[in-house]
């Protein structure tokens, strides 16, 4: 220990100045020498300077804590601050750091006191407020009202009064707190949420009635027990309850809902009762219209294995006349329509004993719900009845059409295909044939060059235009866009389709029926006798149809058709392989448009990011280095791409809607010459590129740079 005499000598030798850095140095040196009293005095001087509190407070606390209890130390610092006339801003700044220092030392309570006292003199300080909330939310409260008490929103005395009032009026304590003590429901909710560690939910008249969930529950029972199911979701069932920690109730709920995936929300008695009353009042008076609105609420949970096996033994199969099956089928179809699904798949599994119903949304299948296999036969029979096909035939595939007409939804046609599957089951696939109009050619998302070429070839009086790609790549939609562009009262347009999915005024549309011999070739021949200008033929499946198509195009008609080929250049070789006359074909060909559908990033939640140079160069390499240079995309700090995220609007997938990517080969003189010489695909490809064709992948990558999609989607559909 240094004697006080030496200490005063040292102090004298240290510079005496008002410069805050020098004072700080002096304070630090004194502290390190163990001269705490002197150091404290120097730290005090720093209060009035602009010196950063982060540099003052820790040192000061270290000095004072040597001789004081933590509480005493706070008092000492408070006293010191009073000596200097500090602005309230400076004062709260210093106290904030004092609080932080106390938290560091593990004195949460003292820190909270410091923050609270500061909040009184500086109520607008956000940092202080944050710290208070943090400490309160971290500490585990012992009662559901602790948060309210901590925040000083209610006193223990008031709480006692509310409790006794609650006993006599049968109203909840929370309700009385809002009514008599003017507490905000929001604060009460926070308190309950903090205590139970789950979300708080108040009454909301907009919550749809969960018809499927409350079907087996009785209103008086729920009112007595004070809980109510609110909704089904991917993550399970949401239950609103007054006490999520009541094991008797939660156990009962788990038993009743037959699922382990339950999410509890806490609510106050009066709100729960309001939900119950509303759900049950609606339930009895519900109109069809409203029922439809609730259909999205159908459970998609799994039934538990054990119970299901029992069910098979104990109960008989549910047949197609049961109201459960009828309703389920209707609900599945309506929900699929609402979700804009293109197909519904019904798949009974002999392994899990469950029947999965899946929807195809934007080209990708998603599970919609599962039901026990005991319902599968009923569902299949019901679908067969609706499609008017043989209900007793279960060993052979069948197909048919369903005209689905229900109040409140647009008329809908579906194509049903049934197939016998393993385990003595039958699968069903329903294609939704939404009667829709055609897009405009300009809205198809064609690149500038492709749009120009399309308009040019569509303006020709005769010739052949093909849209190619695998099933479900949007070929028919594209042809309808093209027809829409050239459709006018001056021309006669015949179409042969299987089936007619898109209708347009002015078009004469024929649906082929191969079963009765009305196939594409036959319809085509009839068209030629029916004075057409333009003919659209659904598909050139065989040599005969293709030959008639080419003949028609050479005799003065514009013929549009589709083909199942992968790329535009490959189409040419495929048609020649089918035995078409190369001379006729080369004369007829105006252009081939290959396409794929990619999912569009959900514009509501897509996330912007700046790609690294490596990522950029990988994309450029995938595009083809040389070709990329003419694509005019440069790497710059401003360059942004997007990646999928997921929100309610896109059911959490990150994608919403689809867009086509294209590869358009124009029948230029050079291409026609190659066809005449029966050139190989590679030669046609090279000539096409020379004529300005971009490949599917290149078009896709351009759309990545436009922020419409991501490279993953492009890779998914473009297989090299
Ligand atoms: Zn989204």
Can you walk me through this structure?
- By secondary structure, the chain is of the alpha/beta class.
- The chain has 32 helices and 18 strands.
- Helix 6 runs antiparallel to helix 7 (108-121), helix 26 (582-588) packs antiparallel against helix 29 (669-676) and helix 29 (669-676) runs antiparallel to helix 30 (681-690).
- Mean pLDDT is 85; it is low at 283-315.
- Zinc ion (ZN) is lined by residues 602, 604-605, 646-647, 649-650, 654.
Quickly describe the structure.
The chain has 720 residues and is of the alpha/beta class.
Mean pLDDT: 85
Looking at the structure, what is the overall shape? flat
Radius of gyration: 37 Å
Q: Helix coverage percent of residues?
A: 40-55%
N-to-C CA distance: 82 Å
How many H/I helical runs?
32
Strand numbers in spatial order across the main sheet = 12-11-13-14-10-15-18
Oligomer: single chain
The total beta strand count reads: 18
Largest sheet: 7 strands, mixed
The small molecules bound here are:
zinc ion
Class of secondary structure makeup: alpha/beta
Percent range for β-strand residues: 15-25%
Note poorly predicted spans.
283-315
Features:
720 residues, alpha/beta, 6-stranded antiparallel β-sheet, 18 strands, binds zinc ion
Map the helices and strands.
Blueprint: H1 4-13, H2 20-32, H3 36-46, H4 53-64, H5 70-83, H6 88-104, H7 108-121, H8 126-138, H9 146-150, H10 156-169, H11 173-180, H12 185-196, H13 211-214, H14 219-225, E1 227-233, E2 236-241, H15 247-257, E3 262-266, H16 269-285, H17 288-293, H18 305-314, H19 323-338, E4 343-348, E5 354-361, E6 364-372, H20 376-387, E7 398-404, E8 412-421, E9 425-433, H21 448-458, E10 463-468, H22 475-486, E11 493-497, E12 507-511, H23 520-528, E13 534-537, H24 543-554, E14 558-563, H25 568-577, H26 582-588, E15 589-601, E16 607-609, H27 613-623, H28 625-630, E17 641-643, E18 655-666, H29 669-676, H30 681-690, H31 696-705, H32 711-717
Parallel strand pairs: 2-3, 10-14, 10-15, 11-12, 11-13, 13-14
Antiparallel strand pairs: 1-2, 4-5, 4-9, 5-6, 7-8, 8-9, 15-18, 16-17
The structure holds zinc ion.
């Amino acid at each position: 220990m240094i004697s006080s005499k030496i200490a005063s000598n040292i102090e004298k030798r240290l510079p005496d100045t008002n410069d805050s850095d020098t004072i700080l140095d002096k304070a630090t040196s004194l502290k390190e020498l163990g001269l705490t009293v002197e150091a404290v005095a120097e730290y005090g001087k720093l209060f009035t300077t602009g010196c950063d509190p982060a540099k003052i407070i820790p040192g000061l606390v270290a000095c004072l804590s040597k001789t004081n209890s933590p509480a005493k130390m706070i008092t000492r610092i408070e006293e010191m601050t009073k000596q200097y006339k500090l602005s309230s801003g400076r004062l709260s700044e210093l106290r904030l750091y004092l609080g932080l220092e106390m938290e560091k030392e593990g004195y949460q309570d003292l820190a909270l006191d410091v923050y609270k006292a500061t909040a009184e003199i500086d109520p607008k300080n956000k940092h202080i407020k944050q710290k208070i909330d943090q400490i309160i939310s971290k500490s585990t409260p012992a009662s559901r009202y602790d948060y309210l008490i901590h925040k000083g929103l209610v006193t223990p005395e008031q709480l006692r009064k509310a409790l006794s009032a609650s006993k006599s009026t049968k109203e909840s304590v929370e309700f009385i707190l809002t009514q008599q003590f003017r507490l905000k429901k929001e604060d009460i909710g926070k308190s309950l949420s903090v205590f139970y560690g789950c979300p708080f939910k108040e009454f909301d008249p907009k919550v749809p009635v969960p018809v499927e969930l409350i079907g087996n529950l009785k209103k008086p029972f729920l009112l007595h027990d004070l809980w109510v199911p609110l909704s089904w979701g991917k993550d399970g069932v949401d239950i609103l309850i007054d006490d999520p920690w009541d094991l008797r109730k939660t156990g009962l709920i788990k038993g009743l809902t037959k699922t382990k995936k339950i999410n509890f929300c806490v609510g106050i008695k009066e709100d729960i009762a309001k939900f119950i009353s509303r759900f049950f009042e609606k339930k009895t008076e519900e109109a069809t219209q409203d029922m439809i609105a609730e259909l999205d609420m159908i459970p998609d949970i799994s039934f538990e294995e054990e119970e299901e096996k029992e069910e098979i033994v104990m109960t008989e199969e549910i047949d197609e006349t049961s109201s459960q099956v009828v309703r389920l089928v209707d609900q599945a179809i309506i929900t699929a329509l609402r979700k804009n699904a293109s197909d519904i798949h019904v798949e009974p599994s002999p392994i899990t004993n469950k029947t999965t119903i899946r929807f195809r949304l934007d080209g990708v299948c998603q599970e919609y719900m599962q039901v026990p296999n005991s319902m599968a036969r009923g569902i299949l029979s019901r679908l067969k009845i609706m499609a008017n096909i043989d209900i007793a035939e279960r060993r052979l595939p069948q197909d048919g059409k369903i005209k689905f007409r229900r109040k409140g939804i647009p008329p809908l046609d579906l194509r049903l295909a049934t197939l016998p599957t393993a385990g003595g089951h039958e699968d069903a696939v329903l294609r939704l044939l939404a009667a829709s109009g055609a897009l405009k050619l300009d809205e198809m998302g064609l690149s500038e060059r492709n749009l120009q070429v399309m308009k040019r070839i569509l303006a020709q009086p005769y010739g052949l235009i093909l849209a190619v790609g695998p099933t479900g790549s949007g070929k028919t939609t594209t042809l309808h866009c093209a027809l829409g562009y050239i459709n006018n009262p001056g021309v006669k347009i015949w179409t042969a389709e299987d089936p007619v999915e898109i209708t347009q005024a002015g078009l004469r549309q024929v649906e082929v029926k191969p079963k009765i011999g009305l196939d594409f070739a036959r319809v085509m021949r009839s068209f030629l006798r029916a004075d057409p200008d333009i003919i659209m033929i659904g598909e050139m499946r065989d040599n005969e149809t293709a030959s008639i198509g080419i003949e028609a195009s050479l005799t003065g008609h514009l013929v549009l058709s589709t083909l199942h080929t992968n790329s535009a250049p490959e189409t040419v070789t495929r048609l020649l392989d089918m035995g078409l006359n190369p001379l006729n074909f080369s004369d007829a060909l105006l252009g081939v448009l290959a396409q794929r559908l990619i999912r569009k990033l959900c514009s509501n939640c897509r996330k912007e990011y700046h790609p690294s140079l490596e990522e950029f160069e990988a994309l450029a390499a995938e595009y083809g280095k040389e070709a990329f240079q003419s694509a005019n995309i440069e790497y710059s700090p401003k360059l942004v791409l997007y990646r999928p995220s997921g929100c309610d609007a896109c059911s959490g997938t990150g994608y919403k809607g689809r867009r086509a990517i294209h590869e358009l080969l124009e029948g230029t003189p050079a291409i026609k010459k190659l066809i005449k010489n029966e050139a190989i695909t590679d030669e046609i490809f090279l000539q096409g590129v020379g004529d300005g064709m971009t490949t599917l992948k290149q078009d896709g990558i351009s759309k990545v740079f436009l922020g419409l999609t991501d490279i993953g989607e492009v890779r998914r559909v473009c297989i090299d």
